């Protein structure tokens, strides 16, 4: 047979060309010669350093070992074969012996080779000797919620792992480092913080009821003329609004003038003074302006018409006065309001009303004025709850110097609330609320976590106040605590199963 076509088998049964085998042998000889020459050179360096009273560098033996291809001795395998794994380290396993698609056999894994399922490519050290500890039960090797009181195998032929007495501490949960790293479990110490939580609610702008006034008469009158003011106009206090004639006012004015003009008709000066005061009080009871009474005193005549003025600064909201009309007592001729200060009535949800305090700062944003923010404060919390919407009205007083805020505008209200002093707080994600209780997980290091029941206080946007259960500086799990909670539930189930087995 030709040397170029002659073959011999590999160890796994495949064949290869003999010429290729010759070339491989030549390469090995060349590498061995290079390693020997490097070793001789390093020994020479060591000899010279020894004569110079110097130590051999630590890298020399390591380099020599690397060149010679020496590796730590692999511990001998013992026990039966548990399963077979892919020779390339892939996450492929088999209960029985098999080969890869290219014909290579799977690697056998023996009982003393404890494979870490957190990282299939790494093998852990053999399990420590448990001594004379009593086995409580056997758990599923893949972490499934399945236990057995006697040794057994799963569907892949893997042995169940024994759980010894003292390993199932109910106060802590043990999680492998690989699983913690994959799921992103993160811890943060509890610290003193000022917990704030803005209460958000819809609101409506209303007029300040204390700054609304009306113009009405107390006697039957006839409107002679109305000034050039109408709804929406801004007026000032004392500005003329209308002129009217009232028979009752004219009669009261004439009586007052006659008493004042009678200088000697009454001998008793005290009695005359009382008459003047009574006549003047009658004019005041008819709401005659003080300026009109002063004019009667000055001119000694009763004016035919009286000018009625605005009682305060404000915007005219309503005008019903018409020239020539007859106005009866109590008829509203003008309605005006001072809009320099307005109210915002916010509908706060029932569950948030406890967080709102009188005097708390409030931020108002009006939808019709984007980009503008108005500042006010809580003036009153109304003492009732709307049975339909389950909300409580909160009144906020807000300055409106430029008058851009108009009645019945919609507004978005944000009321500041929370603790005024720093309190122990943890991130909101650290608290697991089951409805009946609140739990956090304390990180005790090395993959150990302790569930701890706590009492919470104010819940802010980012942090929650902890009133009981956690001290300042305690390391609390703040991310991926759902994994630890699941492990805790699994452990509780296993513990209940064990207790049931013991009671049988």
UniProtKB/TrEMBL annotation:
Biased composition (Basic and acidic residues): 1-15
Residue stretches making up the CzcB-like C-terminal circularly permuted SH3-like domain: 424-484
Transmembrane residue ranges: 29-49
Domain of life: Bacteria
Domain CusB-like barrel-sandwich hybrid, chain residue ranges per copy: 212-337
Region feature (Disordered): 1-21
Domain CusB-like beta-barrel span(s) in chain numbering: 342-417
Keywords annotated in UniProt: Membrane, Transmembrane, Transmembrane helix, Transport
Keyword Hydrolase attached: no
Pfam name, any one: CzcB_C
Family membership: Belongs to the membrane fusion protein (MFP) (TC 8.A.1) family.
NCBIfam families for the chain: RND_mfp
Name this protein carries in UniProt: Efflux RND transporter periplasmic adaptor subunit
Organism: Afipia carboxydohydrogena
Phylogenetic lineage: Bacteria, Pseudomonadati, Pseudomonadota, Alphaproteobacteria, Hyphomicrobiales
């Amino acid at each position: 047979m030709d040397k170029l076509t002659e073959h011999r088998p590999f160890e796994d049964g495949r064949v290869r060309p003999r010429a290729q085998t010759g070339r491989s042998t030549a390469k090995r000889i060349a590498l061995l010669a290079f390693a020997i020459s490097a070793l001789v050179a390093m020994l020479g360096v060591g000899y010279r350093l020894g004569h110079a009273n110097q130590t051999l560098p630590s890298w020399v033996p390591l380099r020599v070992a690397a060149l010679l291809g020496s590796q730590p001795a692999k511990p001998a395998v013992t026990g039966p074969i548990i399963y077979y794994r892919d020779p390339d380290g892939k996450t492929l396993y088999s209960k029985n012996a098999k080969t890869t698609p290219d014909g290579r056999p799977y690697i056998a894994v023996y009982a003393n080779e404890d494979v870490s399922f957190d990282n299939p490519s790494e093998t852990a050290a053999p399990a420590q000797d448990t001594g004379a500890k009593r086995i409580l039960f056997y758990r599923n090797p893949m972490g499934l919620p399945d236990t057995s009181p006697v040794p057994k195998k799963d569907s892949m032929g893997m042995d169940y792992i024994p759980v010894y007495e003292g390993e199932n501490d109910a106060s802590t949960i043990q999680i492998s480092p690989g699983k913690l790293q994959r799921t992103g479990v993160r811890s943060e110490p509890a610290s003193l913080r000022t917990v704030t939580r803005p209460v958000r609610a819809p609101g409506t702008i209303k007029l300040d009821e204390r700054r609304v006034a009306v113009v009405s008469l107390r006697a039957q009158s006839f409107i002679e003329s109305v000034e050039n003011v109408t709804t929406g106009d801004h007026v000032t206090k004392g500005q003329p609004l209308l002129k009217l004639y009232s028979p009752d006012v004219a009669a009261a004015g004439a009586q007052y003038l006659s008493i004042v003009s009678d200088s000697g008709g009454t001998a008793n000066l005290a009695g005359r003074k009382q008459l003047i005061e009574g006549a003047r009080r009658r004019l005041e009871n008819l709401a005659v302006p003080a300026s009109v009474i002063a004019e009667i005193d000055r001119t000694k005549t009763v004016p035919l018409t009286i000018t009625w003025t605005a009682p305060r600064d404000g915007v005219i909201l309503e005008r019903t006065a018409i020239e020539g009309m007859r106005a009866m007592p109590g008829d509203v001729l003008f309605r005006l309001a001072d809009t320099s200060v307005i109210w915002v009535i916010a509908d706060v949800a029932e569950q948030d009303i406890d967080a709102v305090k009188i005097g708390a700062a409030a931020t108002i944003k009006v939808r019709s004025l984007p980009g503008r923010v108005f500042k006010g404060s809580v003036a009153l919390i109304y003492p009732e709850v709307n049975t339909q919407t389950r909300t409580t009205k909160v009144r906020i007083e807000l300055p409106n110097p430029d008058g851009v805020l108009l009645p019945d505008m919609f507004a978005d209200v944000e009321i500041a609330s929370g603790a005024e002093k720093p309190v122990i707080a943890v991130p909101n994600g650290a608290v697991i609320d089951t409805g009946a209780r609140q739990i956090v997980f304390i990180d005790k290091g090395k993959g150990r976590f302790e569930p701890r029941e706590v009492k919470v206080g104010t819940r802010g946007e980012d942090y929650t106040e902890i009133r009981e259960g956690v001290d300042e500086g305690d390391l609390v799990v703040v991310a991926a605590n759902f994994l630890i909670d699941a492990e805790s539930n699994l452990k509780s189930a296993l513990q209940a199963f064990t207790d049931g087995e013991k009671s049988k």
